[in-house]
Amino acid sequence: MKNAAGLDLFCGVGGFALNLASILGQVYGVEVSKPAISAAKRAANYSGIKNVSFAAGDAGTMLESVCPVLGKKPEAVVVNPPRRGIGTGICEWISRLSPSVVVYSSCNPLSLQKDLSRLEGYRVKQAQLFDMFPHTSHAEVMVLAVKK
Ligand SMILES: C[S@@+](CC[C@H](N)C(=O)[O-])C[C@H]1O[C@@H](n2cnc3c(N)ncnc32)[C@H](O)[C@@H]1O
Prior knowledge:
It is built from 5 helices and 7 strands; from the N terminus they run βαβαβαβαβαββ. It is α/β, with parallel strands linked by helices. Helix 1 (15-20) links the parallel strand 1 (5-9) and strand 2. The protein is globular, with a radius of gyration of 15 Å. The two termini are 20 Å apart. Bound molecules: S-adenosylmethionine.
């Protein structure tokens, strides 16, 4: 996988991107919060991770500019959006881009279910519930979707 590139959309402080960088050749994270992007860059520097880049901006509008920066089609796309989910536009963009895998980490099963039904050409291979918000009705669900 060292030749492959990956994307972490809604990357926050870069948790997924920084981990993906150990298995992929190049990783790119996009996040709307500038302070979060600064923290992600500091974490990469601190950890000596060189094959990851981060940019502050809206994931939906930055998509078209991401692939030219990577120089290749991402093989893996990770999304960890807020409760509203990623919505139709990003789902359609991912389907067109056609990465081998989509990893969707969600804190809202309703938007997750809607987005998965919009991800054309993919099927859910594995799903795992994480009880990350104990003593509440909330939970995180991580889904691995692969091309049909
Ligand atoms: C569930 S958190 C992701 C946390 C991240 N995985 C981490 O390791 O820090 C969702 C993130 O989406 C970001 N976000 C919200 N709207 C966005 C948008 N339109 N474009 C990019 N990022 C956005 C929020 O600022 C927040 O950091």
